[in-house]
Write a structure and sequence with these properties.
Blueprint lengths: L1 H16 L30 H5 L14 E5 L23 E5 L13
Antiparallel strand pairs: 1-2
């Protein structure tokens, strides 16, 4: 009887959880969306001399992403701006945070 009850409970649970009506960020079956294929980390250099030193800073192709970035935090994903990637998107109301950093340490969300 216990096995039958466990089986019935499991079927109900999985039919609710995996019904497909969950948003993508809450669906355990969604592992990636718009993700690039995995690749090795490489660096391109202009010449063999710079490459042989393994000093990424010597490459003209290095792009440092540190600095001040525009940032918009929302309490739930449904409140996110959907067109932020468009070139004419107005981000003037967005705050600025220092990168690299942690947005919770910058005053957003709940620090964990």
């Amino acid at each position: 009887m216990k096995k039958l009850l466990f089986l019935f409970t499991s079927i109900i649970y999985f039919s609710v959880v995996y019904a497909g009506n969950e948003p993508e960020w809450n669906n355990v079956k969604v592992l990636q969306i718009n993700r690039e294929k995995p690749h090795t980390t490489m660096m391109v250099y202009e010449n063999i001399k710079n490459a042989s030193n393994f000093d990424k800073a010597k490459s003209q192709y290095l792009k440092n992403l540190n600095g001040n970035w525009k940032f918009n935090w929302v309490r739930k994903p449904a409140d996110r701006p959907v067109d932020f990637y468009k070139t004419k998107f107005d981000d003037s109301a967005w705050k600025t945070i220092s990168v690299p950093s942690n947005w919770q340490m910058e005053g957003y969300g709940t620090p964990i």
